[in-house]
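Tokens as discussed.
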């Protein structure tokens, strides 16, 4: 649970709990992710280069070699896999690099990459935009028919560009490209913590694509109800 920060002092009141539990539920099917496409990580591909110095390859995945990440996916190469639809990427949220280029994908929800805090390089078919928009990345370029999104920006301290704040008694932490979460400080709890300030949902959506607006509002309301009940 990457972004759930020091649990002992912090009571997390993630706005995205609903989606997160969906993600947890789907972990069983993860085994198929690395076998989703024939073969192994393509030789001399970006993920291959990354994995050479950082881990070992199994199927289309690169797994970490460090004791801290020996069984986590740190890279994923699903390029040239004839994938037309991506709904989620299971538990590859620990990835540093993901390659989805050279696939007939026509649209991709920003929510797929929610919680992908480590992601520093993402390769997409060139006609797709980087999740969270250009503003969520240090560098965006198109090369060899792929859009390369590099260096995830920390949305929480871009105050000059986007002057939003978490509600009083909470703090902001990044939660994947274009996403952040507000966690309550110690002694402050769920709904009350959120209620103390006006959560800037409109500003979050400001940098997301229009298609996500409906989903977010829906989540916002379900989450509010959930928080009220606890
Ligand atoms: C990672 O470990 C595997 C064996 O578990 C080894 O073959 C590989 O060379 C290691 N990679 C690095 C970068 O140390
Ligand atoms: C593995 O550990 C080394 C140092 O111990 C660190 O430099 C490297 O970034 C780690 N790799 C990953 C993928 O976390
Ligand atoms: C993904 O989650 C499943 C179920 O929790 C687990 O068995 C599997 O080892 C995980 N895979 C990775 C790469 O973390
Ligand atoms: C994509 O994969 C096919 C085989 O599945 C291969 O013939 C083709 O050369 C690959 N294209 C690229 C750009 O790697
Ligand atoms: C992608 O587009 C198809 C039709 O064009 C639509 O059915 C699907 O829901 C879209 N998916 C996402 C994630 O927006
Ligand atoms: C993002 O940056 C790329 C490359 O600089 C550019 O082609 C694209 O139009 C930009 N997208 C938006 C929505 O500004
Ligand atoms: C944003 O915060 C991170 C750590 O929280 C820091 O490393 C980085 O330098 C900050 N960026 C700016 C522009 O202040």
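Sequence:
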């Amino acid at each position: 649970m990457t972004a759930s920060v020091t649990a002992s002092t912090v009571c997390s009141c993630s706005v995205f709990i609903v989606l997160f539990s969906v993600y947890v539920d789907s972990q069983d099917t993860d085994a198929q992710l690395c076998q989703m496409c024939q073969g192994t990580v393509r030789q001399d591909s970006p993920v291959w280069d990354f994995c050479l110095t950082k881990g070992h390859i199994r199927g289309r995945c690169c797994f970490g070699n460090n004791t801290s990440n020996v069984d986590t996916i740190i890279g994923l190469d699903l390029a040239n896999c004839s994938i037309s639809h991506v709904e989620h990427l299971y538990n590859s949220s620990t990835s540093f690099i993901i390659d989805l280029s050279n696939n007939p994908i026509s649209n991709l929800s920003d929510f797929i990459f929610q919680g992908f805090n480590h992601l520093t390089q993402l390769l997409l078919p060139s006609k797709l935009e980087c999740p969270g928009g250009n503003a969520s990345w240090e560098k965006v370029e198109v090369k060899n028919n792929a859009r390369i999104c590099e260096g995830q920006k920390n949305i929480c301290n871009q105050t000059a560009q986007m002057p939003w704040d978490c509600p009083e008694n909470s703090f902001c932490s990044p939660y994947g490209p274009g996403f952040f979460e507000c966690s309550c400080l110690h002694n402050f709890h769920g709904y009350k913590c959120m209620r103390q300030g006006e959560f800037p949902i409109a500003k979050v959506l400001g940098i997301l694509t229009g298609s996500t607006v409906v989903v977010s509002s829906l989540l916002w309301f379900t989450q509010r109800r959930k928080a009220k009940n606890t």
